[in-house]
Sequence to fold (147 residues):
Amino acid sequence: MAVKINGINHCAISVADIEETIKWYHDVFGFTVVNRSEIPGAGIKVAHLQGVGFLLEVFEAPGANALPEDRRVPNRDLMTHGNKHMSFGVPDGKKAKAELEAMGVEIAMVAEVDDTYGVFIRDNTGNLIEIFEESGDVVFNQHKDQA
Fold:
C-alpha cells in the first residue's frame, strides 16, 4: 500500500549568502521569512521562506563548495544524478518570462517540449528554477484535478 502524502512540504537549497538569497526570493517571487535558526554545533544558518503552497528551506554553510558550473546549465545538469530543479507553476509562461527579464533575472533556457512551455532561470547562487506554464491538457497539469 502506498504512503498517502499531502503534497510538497518544502524544497531545500544551499546558498552562498542567506541574506542575499532571502532578498532575491522576496523580490522575484514574494517569499517571506517564517523562521530562522542555526544547526547546533555546525554554524550553518537556516531560514524557511513561505511561498505559495510550500516552504523553501535555505542553508548557508561556512566554507561550502560553490555550485559546479555543470549544475547551472539545465541540460548539462541532467548528466549528474540528484535533484535537478524546483518548478513554479504560472498561468502564462511568456508573460512570466518577460516579467523576469524586466527584473533583470537571467534566463538560462526556454524549454518547449511536448506542448509545454517552461523557462529556466538561476537564483542568486545559481540554483536552477523552472517557471512552468500550467495550461492545456498535458500530464504536468493533471495533478490539479486530483486534489
Q: What stands out?
A: The CA atoms of residues 49 and 56 lie 5 Å apart. The chain has three helices and eight strands. The two ends are 19 Å apart (CA to CA).
